[in-house]
Every structure is written in structure tokens, then in C-alpha cells.
Amino acid sequence: MVNFIRSIVLQTSHCKFHIQNKFCPNYSLFVFQPTFKRNFCTNMVAFNRTTLEEVIKKRFFFAPSFQIYGGVAGLYDYGPPGCALQANILDLWRRHFVLEEDMLEMDGSIMTPATVLKTSGHVDKFTDWMVNDTKNGDIFRADHLVETVLETRLNEDQQARSAELEGTIVVASKDKKKKNKIKAVKLDENTKAEYENILAKIDNFTGTELGEIIDKYTIKNPETGNDLSKPVEFNLMFESNIGPTGQLKGYLRPETAQGQFLNFKRFLEFNNDKMPFASASIGRSFRNEISPRSGLLRVREFTMAEIEHYVDPNNKDHPRFDEVKDIKLHLLPQNIQVEGKTNPIEISIGEAVEKKIVDNQTLGYFLARIHLFLIKLGIKNERLRFRQHMPNEMAHYACDCWDAEIQSSYGWIECVGCADRSAYDLTVHSNRTKEKLVVRENLSEPLVYEKTVLEINKKVFGPKLRQNAKTVEDYLLRLDEEQLEALKKALEVGNGKTTVPGTDGKEYEVFSEFFNIERQTITEYVREYIPNVIEPSFGIGRILYSLIEHVFWVREDDEQRAVLSFPPLVSPFKCLLVPLSNNPAFSDLVRDLSARLRKLSIAIKVDDSSNSIGRRYSRNDELGTPFAITIDFQSVNDNTVTLRERDTTKQIREKVDTILQVLKNLTEEEITWDEVMTKYPIFIQQEIDS
Amino acid sequence: MVNFIRSIVLQTSHCKFHIQNKFCPNYSLFVFQPTFKRNFCTNMVAFNRTTLEEVIKKRFFFAPSFQIYGGVAGLYDYGPPGCALQANILDLWRRHFVLEEDMLEMDGSIMTPATVLKTSGHVDKFTDWMVNDTKNGDIFRADHLVETVLETRLNEDQQARSAELEGTIVVASKDKKKKNKIKAVKLDENTKAEYENILAKIDNFTGTELGEIIDKYTIKNPETGNDLSKPVEFNLMFESNIGPTGQLKGYLRPETAQGQFLNFKRFLEFNNDKMPFASASIGRSFRNEISPRSGLLRVREFTMAEIEHYVDPNNKDHPRFDEVKDIKLHLLPQNIQVEGKTNPIEISIGEAVEKKIVDNQTLGYFLARIHLFLIKLGIKNERLRFRQHMPNEMAHYACDCWDAEIQSSYGWIECVGCADRSAYDLTVHSNRTKEKLVVRENLSEPLVYEKTVLEINKKVFGPKLRQNAKTVEDYLLRLDEEQLEALKKALEVGNGKTTVPGTDGKEYEVFSEFFNIERQTITEYVREYIPNVIEPSFGIGRILYSLIEHVFWVREDDEQRAVLSFPPLVSPFKCLLVPLSNNPAFSDLVRDLSARLRKLSIAIKVDDSSNSIGRRYSRNDELGTPFAITIDFQSVNDNTVTLRERDTTKQIREKVDTILQVLKNLTEEEITWDEVMTKYPIFIQQEIDS
To answer: Where, by residue number, does the polypeptide cross the bilayer (chains A, B) (predicted)?
Structure first.
């Protein structure tokens, strides 16, 4: 989906959250198979994205921003349930990662001066290729367009082949605008193979290559049939100016990572100079997508949560690796992908690290922790895999990189990236700013070693070279051991005379009396190193949307009754409070219970509308609220209420105090509803009108 | 501090968080008086901002962003304690406001299309005036520069006067760059009065007026002495382009409010069409300040928390007003300010609303709730006041507006604005988009009333007026009752003939047979209205900084020992865990205790560095961590640990289980340390080396 230059950088720091499915060779034929079963419920109806999208809209999980002004592609507002869901995901993230491991969380600026992003490589490489319709000016992202057109042709080919088998002629697609029917066209075997080959490599083409593909396969604007321009590079950062002069160019950050790297020294000091440690940040980032699509999966503004774990390059073991080593993950390592297969292996992370499938313990530790986090949220294990980047996907400096991919109706989507970025980021910022971003470690035993060193004989060097002394000295000081030995050799060969370039590029004569080059014994008491960075990076919107798909189902008995089975820990609201009717007799109890639930920090939603109880339960199912307390006339008399569980629709009836205690335990996931049902009798009246 | 046009809008929606001190007539002579006493501690040392700033930097509460690149004025990064403090403030905000009152929280886009902000008035009016040094190009915010220069002159005048009294000559200030000493100059009485008058009105000048002041009082660039340009208007929004064509102009939102207004219809539907209700949003907003200053108090990027409470314009009572009516606030209403006084009155909000000092119950309710929130955070009541906007500060559409101002070493700073914005915002967006942003209320009894109405006689009107029919009809349909009666009269006077303007401005002859104007009885079953909006708007960074100042003090016995006495509820970390030394004997207990504390959701910080216990306690005091558990050799034997409280430095020693329970109760503020000290014996060993 991206050009080659970008793909070098992309999959590590820059483009953490783009859709990854290219390594499934059949992905163009991918049709979502809702064959997965949910363990909590057997009454399943096949997944229908349209139904889900209606629920998302109706219950205001999220919706296009500025819609009354016509909206802007790729910008979304989260309504109350979406906002609460996001807050709960972030809260869990903070507890699971930051608090659990004493990570140093920071909250940094979004507006970033251009120099910072020039150093990081974003100004030059954070780009996509775009083409436009030469007649009406419509703009497309080049790789996406090629992908869509070739996919369509392959689909039509497959339909034509099926039809051939069945001896019928099939109309493959309908161009709604033109009201014309287009016939499914069968491709010859060579073309088919070429298309599949292009799609498998779609992330890796340069602009020129994309242009050639467009020409060779006569790809046009599918809407108009018009020709397309040559691909042009487009930087994905939003640009602005800081301050009134307009001279300080700024960009909206494309990731939170750079802000963390720049604070490395402060973090290290805050951490009492102890290594390893991690910084973390939650915040909004921006990418000015050429043509956003796929709802929350490709947007222009998104919330990220990123961890930068700083580690000694010589020792990437993790002190808590033992705690996770037996956790089994679905891994899709490079070698499986190379064979063109997409079935992951299930393997414990301990074994994977031992067998060097995963490069090191720290990377493995985070893969396991990411797995635990996603499962706790409600992501289904069978629809979660970790895919290793292919060597050509990785940045040149990266050691290893794995994406947590979650399957949804859009395919396998990269939702968390986890890369070993080596010392790249700290090195480039350090070089640019001359600020040392290093760790100094007192050695318990001094390090003693031999080294070829150069010592300039100032008494001769300066007076002889005069105004050229500086440029020659600068050159000499940059030489490594091997180069110094070569210089020594050259002086010997030249009988104490040779030439060297200055940093100005000119050649200068030097003599053996100018300096000594010799082997010396070096004793070091302090080791200084630039730490490596292991970076787990989470696209919160992608996780949130995937989760919604994973917990969505429709009651078999009633297609109108959609349910979102969020685990209580992340559900936007924990409990619905419904009086049987809006009879004033209930209002005291409603008020009293609301206050008590709030005091227990249980997020509630009161529904005292005049709708039927069943309708109100149903609305609540769509919000994913796991429990409901119903207040009826009996409640007023004996202070008992019923507690209904969303997925089973079963209820218990107990005294208010008991129900509150049970509910508290349920929302904190200290007991399960199954356990509650064995402990308390099921209440079987009510829900008469549901 | 701003021009006139802006000040109309500013103090309500746009410039919610600028420093407000103009209504203190002596503010130019203001010197921070640390006379306030803290109730928890008597060993006080006078407040010293430099000491505080050192602590803030050393402990990485916050620091300039991109500092290794030289930094950018007005952009700050929050380090671990600042970030945790901010998260705790926001968490409390969410519980205190959103959860407590079932507000509909949303999370909206920052990037906003220009049309939205054109409608809201920001494109035209969200501006400041700037001037530049005509020689070196230095840029200043015009009102700030005038303010600084006149303040300096008044200060020098005062010093000259004092010196005169004492019979000495005083050197008032030192121009460090020029190394010249400048004499304090006494002003004549007229000039002094004029300066004071200008400073009192500094927010309200237009650019032209600021230019006149600069000319009249020969104000120059204080650094260079060079002349200044005429004031030029500068829009404070960061501009960018959305999408690849560059044709869709966008701005970074200057507030979250507009995003909430645009979703009004969705909110109302989500709330089952019930009124009143509130939406809320927490998020980053931006203002491209001309010259940011005063640390976190005037920045280019900041976190806001805003509530938009939608209310029936005919009934601004609040159902829960009774719960707050006895709360006493420090109010500084208009009439006191008009008299030039700055001493607030202390009055219950019930009485203030009853006496119409505060316009309505809902506004009063929020003032009281804001007060409770700030006090709970740790803001000192004696340094908190609510200042009413003067009529010239308020937007033309606003009914009433109060700022919660917190006193810090920078003066009284507006930290929360609370405005009744009438129906302004919903009306302008509705007019612009033609989307009805209204509430429809079924009337329990139909509304019956008499009304003068116009009925056009289409058979005559169209044929007679022909191509002009539309423009005349449009004009007629806009007439109110009074205008209709006048038209009827005009026809009577003109014997059934008169002229009216069309919407095109031309005059047209109309005759009485064109239409009927008569009194009719109207029966309405549904009332339709645009709700009014009451908007409490919180500048989180300002509150955070003010809080840090309020809880900061230095132990009398040791000036090196600064303390931040955050209440446990908001303190960045709740508990420090310190083993007596880094003896491996302690490590099991440290690990075990860490895990148990995490499970209790108590944010901890382990300090197993080799520093002395005293040094580690002291570092912790600077982080504001209220409690510390110390593990020593006795702990390993009898499973007891000590619990130290930050402000008193007193300790108790109990079994681990007891300490954990006490700590849990303390951090949730269910018991106080005083209560703990009466229940458990004070432990008096240890802290030997502190």
C-alpha cells in the first residue's frame, strides 16, 4: 500500500497502524467468514456489518465529525458510549502497562517544530504516492487504487470461472452511477498470476513502479474511466506555523514517540539512572491521509498509546520474562509467510524466544503482555495473531518487529506494532542536537583492552600545517582503528610522508613527526552506551473498533435485538437502572440507588423513559451495558430489586444491599455471572413485554 | 490585554483562560504576599517561586517541550508526576461532574474545518494586536507591551516617591544588556492617574487605541529603545490544510465547545429527548499566542475540560440546587468592582441567587460545584474567588458570566469560566447549516393564544406581482406582529394601497386584496425552542499550576526540604516503597508488597537506590507523595513495616495487612492521618539519617 522509500521507515515508527494483509496471498479473495463461535452464547446470527454500523450510529458510539457541515473524511467524534469505552480501554492500558511496571508516563506537545521531524526522518519519508484523474481532478492514493482495481478484476475473474463451471453467465458488479451492468471478465493465467504477485507486494512499490503498473494494466479512475496522472509524493503530516512571524514551521506529531525520545535524559534521571526502564505516552496524533477509508481503521486524527522501553543492547533479557513464558501466542513468523502460508503457529513465548523465532526476551515479554491486554479487553484469541515483519518491511536499523493483527470484517488489521528499533532514534537526535542521550554505567570491574590510538604532536602539527591544522586534525580524529593502522602503514611505505584529506576535501601532506599512532592499553571504569528501544505502539481507535466487532452479535430470536457483549471491565456503562414505569412511587428509590452506585464508582445509566421495559433492556444491550437493576412495586415494599445480565438475559432478585455487593464484584470481574447464578436463585417473572 | 472587538467575545467563549487582574486598581503595584497560612503545617517559610520552579524542573513535573532542540515558547511536556497529577485531576473532574450528573461525554476532533469556526466567530474575532520593533523586527503583543511598560514606570514612580520621603536617590532598575543604571523617575499626578486608568481598561482597547497610547506615551521596545509599528491584528488559531488538495482549510480548535454544539441533536436523542442535560468534553486545544509567558498560565497548547449544559430559557432552575444552596463562596460581583474594590463578599450561593447577584439557579449550581471541585483538589478557599464579568467584558448575547480566579504568585488567574451563553451558539450553527438544533416539547396542555398573522392570497399575489412576488413574499414573511399591525394600518391609511420593500431593497406597491392581516387564535401542542447553554470551562494546566503553588512549602528546619502537600486523592503517587538499604534480604518483601499495592490500585514508587533513607523521603516530599512504607530488617522477621506521612513526618509501625488497609483508606480519603495517629501508636525510631 505504500511506496518503497516509505516502507523502510513506515512499519516501524511512522506507519504503525496501516492495514496489513499483503502476506495473505489469497487476501484479494478474502470474504469474511463468521464461523467463529462465542463462548458465552450459542444463539448466533451471521455477522452483518450494516447492522453493526446502524447500532454504532444510533447509540452514538462514534460518528463523522462536523456532520451538520457535511463532515470531513477521516475525522470522527466519539459519543458518550464510544468515549467511555475509549476511556476504559485507556484506563486498563495504564493499569496493565504503566502502573504494573512503573513506566514513566509523560504527556507531550502535539505541535512539533519541523527540525525535530526532519531529524526523525518524517519530513523526508513519511509520504504516500497519489495520482489524480486527469480530467476531473479526483485524487487517489496510488497503491490503494491499484489494489482496489486489481482486486475487483480478480474477483470478477473468480466469478467468471465459477460461472463457467456452472455453465451460466454472471453479472459481477453493478456500477450504480452509470446503471450499467459490467460483465465478469475471466483473466488469462499469466495476468492472474501477475495481479496476485503485485497485490502481494503492494506495500513495496516506488512511485515510478506504481506509475508503470498503472500504465501497463491500463488502470483508470473506476468512477469515470478517465486517465490518471503519474504518481506524486505527498507528505502525510499536517503542517502549520508557530508564532506570529510564520517563520517557525511546525507539524502536528504523527506519533508520540519523538516527544518521548527527546526527554530521555530527564527520564533516566527521574529513574535514578537505573536501566532498563520504559517511558509511555497516551495522546492524539495526526496523519493527513490522502483518502481515508474503512471507518475508524484509517483516520486523520487518532489516539495512540506508546511505550518506549530502553534496554542495554548487550542484554535484552527481561527480569519478568518468567512470568509470561508459558503464554501461548498465535505467531506468523517470516519463514511461514515466505512459504505463502497464513496459518499461524501456536507456541509459548518462552519457546519462541528460545528458538530465536522472536529475537529477544524483552520483545517476547511485550508480545505476551500485549496478548494479555487484548484478551482482557475482550478481543477473541482465535482472531488475534502476531505477524513478524518481513526483512524488506523493516527499517534498516530495526532488529525485529511484530504486529498484533486483529481480524475484523475488514481483514487482518495491524492494531499494535511492537518493534525493536535499536539505538536509531536516540542516535539521530543526539547527533543533531549534540546532546548526549546515553547511559553511563559504573563497571564493577574496569574494562581493560588494547586499542590503536592517535596522539597529535602539537608542537609540530600546528606550526607546520598552520591555517590547515584544524581541517586535518578534524579528519584524523574521525578515523577508526583500522584507518589509523592504514595511515601508519602509508607513512611507513612513504618513508615518513603521506597525504591525507582535510574535512574540507583537499589533500594535505603529513609527516610521521606530526603524530604518534600506537597500540595502547585502555582501562575503562565507566561504560557509556546508547540504549536500544523496544517500542510497543497501540492504535486505540483500531482496537476499539475491532473489539466492537468481536463482541457484536444479534439474538437469534429477534434480528432487531443486537447485543454488544463487552466485558464488564471495559463496557461504557456498567449498569442500567430502570424503574418499571415512570410512576412517582419509584423516584426515591431510583435517586437513592443512583447515589449509592455512584459512590461505588459504578458508571450507570438511568432510563426512566416511558418505553417498555423490554425496549429499554434492548437499547441497553446495544450499548453493551452488562447489567440492569429493575425497580418495581415489590421493590418499594421489600427493598428487593432484580439484577439482569445482558448476554443470558437471566435475572436474580435480592435485597438491594446484596445486589450492590454482587454488582460491585461483577463489574470488577472478581466473580462471573455463572457463579452468581449458582449462588442465587434465578428470578423468572418480569420481562413480560420484552 | 486585548483589543475591543475581541474582548466582546473573549471572556466568554474564546479567551477563557487569560490572566485577569485588571479590576484590581493597584495590581500594577501587586507584590505577592505569602501571608496565608496552611492549616496542616505551621512551620512555614515565605513563598519563593524560584525554589518551586527548581523542584518542578528537578522532579520533572513539567518542562519546555523540545528543549534539546532549543525549545518552543508556550509548549510544555508533563513528566511522570505532572502527567499523573493531570490524570488524577481529570479523573476527579470526570467523577465530580460527568458521572455525578450523567453528563454526555464526547471526544471530538481537534482539526476543524474553517467554515465551522467562521460561523462561531473565531475566524473574525479570535485575534490579538501585535506590534513590532521597526528596526530588528521583534514582535510583541501590543496590550502586554503597553502593560509592562506602564507598570514599570508606575513602579519606578513609587520607588522615586519612597526615596523622596527618605531623602535618598534610588536606582530603580538595571538594564542588564546595556549595563546602564536607570534612575527611578517620579511621574506627575496626571500622568500617574492616566497610566492607572489605561491599565484598568487594558483588555478593552482596539488596535487603533493601542497605537494611540503607544504614540502618546512614547512607548518603545524596552530592550532596544527602537520605535514600534502600528498594531496589526493577528488571529490566534493555528491554521492547516486538510487532505491532499490543500483546498480545505482547517484550524486546530481553540476550544472543545464547538464540537459539542455540532452534536447537539445526537446528544438530545441519546438523552431520550429529555431536558435539561449536559454534554462534556476533555481534550487538547490550541492558541497560537503572540508571545507566551507565565509558564503554564499562557501556553499554545493546553488541556481543557468543558461542560455545555442545555437548559430551557424559560426555566433556569436546577433540580439539585437545594443540595448546594448553603455553600458559601467568595463572590466579587460587578457592583463591588465598579466601586474599585477587590474584596469579595462571602455569601451562600442560595442567597446570591435569591438576591439576583447570580442570574439563575443553574449558573449558581455550577459555581458551587466548581467551588467544591477546586477545594477537593487542594485549592485553598482563601485564595479562590468568583469574579463576575463586567457588562463590557461579556459577549452581547451572554446573560451572566463568572470566572473562578485562583491566586498565585502571578496574581489572580482565571482558571474556570462559567458563562450563560444564551442560545447564541446553537442559533448561529443552525442558521448556517439549516439543521434545526432545537428541543421539541409536547405540551401537557395545548398553548392557546391570540396572534396577528398574515395570510397571502395566492390567487392575486402571484399574478399581480409576477417576477417580484418572491422578494416581496420573503419580506412579508419576516415581519413580526408589530410590523404586521403597522402594515395593516398603512393599508388603511392608504385606502388599501401602500408600498413595501422586497428583500432586494426595492420598493413595491401592494394592495389590501394581496393578503389578509388579522388576529387569530393559535393552539400549539408542541413547543419548539433553542435551548440556552450554561458553560463551565476549565483550564486544566492553570488549575494544575495554581494547585502546585498552593500546596508548596519548605520545612522550616531545612530550606533544602521542599514539600508538595497534595491531597492523597490527586497526588501523583500515593505511596513510596523504600527498603532500608539495597540489601537483597529486602527484595522479596519489596516485590510482594509492590504487587499487593498495585492490586489495590494504589500508585506506588519504589526507591531502592543507595541514597540515605532521609534523602529518599525528601525526594518523595518534593514529588508530593503522601505516604511511605519502609522495609527494614525487623520487617523481614516479624512482617511489620512503618508507614510515614509526608506533612507530619510521623510514622506508625504495624503488620503489613493492617498497614495496607490503613493506606487504602487514607488514599481514598476515607480516614485522615490525624485519625490514624489516634488509633495506632506513633513509631519513633528510624529516620536516623534524615
So the answer is: none
Q: A426-435, B204-213, B530-539, B681-690: which range is least confident on average?
A: B681-690
Does the beta-carbon distance from B270 to A243 stay under 8 Å? no
Q: Name the closest residue on chain A to residue B273, using Cα atoms.
A: A609
Per-residue pLDDT tens over the stretch A64-99: 999 999 999 999 999 999 999 999 999 999 999 999
Q: Which amino acid, one-letter code, is at A601?
A: S
* 3-class secondary structure per residue, B96-151: HHHHCCCCEEEECCCEEEHHHHHHHCHHHHCEEEEEEECCCCCEEEHHHHHHHHHH
> Cell 501508636 identifies what position?
B681
Whether A36 shows a pLDDT value over 60: the answer reads no
CA quadruple B1, B5, B9, B14: dihedral sign: negative
Enumerate the β-bridge partners of residue A528. Answer: A440
The residue type of B183 is K
User: Does A240 sit within 8 Å of B238, measured CB to CB?
Assistant: yes
Contact of A99 with chain B, judged by CB distance below 8 Å, is answered with: yes
| Radius of gyration of the CA atoms of chain B, in A | 31
pTM of the predicted model as reported, rounded to 2 decimal places: 0.85
Strand partners, B628: B576, B644
pLDDT at A577: 95
What's the first-to-final CA gap in chain B, in angstroms? 48
Contact between B582 and A78 under an 8 Å Cβ cutoff? The reply is no
Query: What percentage of chain A reaches a pLDDT higher than 70?
Result: 89
d(CA B613, CA B632): 11
Q: pLDDT tens across A212-228, in order?
A: 999 999 999 998 999 99
State the Cα–Cα distance between residues A657 and A643, nearest whole angstrom.
12
Mutate to test the interface with A, among B109, B264, B298 (most CBs of A within 10 A): B109
Q: Is the pLDDT of residue B28 over 50?
A: no
In DSSP terms, A78 is beta-bridged to A62, B107
Are A263 and A274 contacting, i.e. CB atoms less than 8 angstroms apart?
Answer: no
**What does the pLDDT average to over B496-521?**
90
Q: In the sheet that B277-286 helps form, which strands lie side by side, from edge to edge? A: B104-106, B277-286, B301-311, B532-539, B411-420, B400-408, B384-388, B328-332, B345-348
Contact B281/B518 with Cβ under 8 angstroms?
Answer: no
Of residues B108, B604, B669, B479, the one with CA closest to residue A83: B108
Question: ∠ at Cα A547 (A543, A549), nearest 5°?
Answer: 125
Domains and CATH numbers, chain A: 6-109+253-420 (3.30.930.10), 127-235 (3.30.40.230), 443-529 (no CATH), 573-684 (3.40.50.800)
CB contact A681 to B (< 8 Å):
no
pLDDT in tens, A572-595: 999 999 999 888 889 899 999 999
Q: What is the pLDDT of residue B32?
A: 33
- Min distance A461 CA to chain B CA atoms (Å): 35
pLDDT tens-digit series, residues B253-293: 999 999 999 999 999 999 999 999 999 999 999 999 998 88
pLDDT value at A180 more than 90: no
Q: Name, in order, each residue with C-beta under 8 angstroms of B623's C-beta and a sequence gap of 6 or more.
A: B59, B81, B564, B572, B573, B605
Distance between CA atoms of A79 and A95, rounded to whole angstroms? 24
Task: Tell me the chain A residues in contact with residue B263 when contact means C-beta distances shorter than 8 Å.
Answer: 60, 63, 77, 79
B316 in A contact zone (CB under 8 Å): no
Please report, for chain A, how many H helices and E strands are present, in that order: 24, 31
Q: Residues with Cβ < 8 Å from B278, sequence gap 6 or more? A: B101, B103, B104, B307, B308, B309, B310
How many angstroms away from the CA of B482 is the closest CA of chain A?
34
Residue B674's contacts (CB-CB under 8 Å, 6 or more residues apart) are none
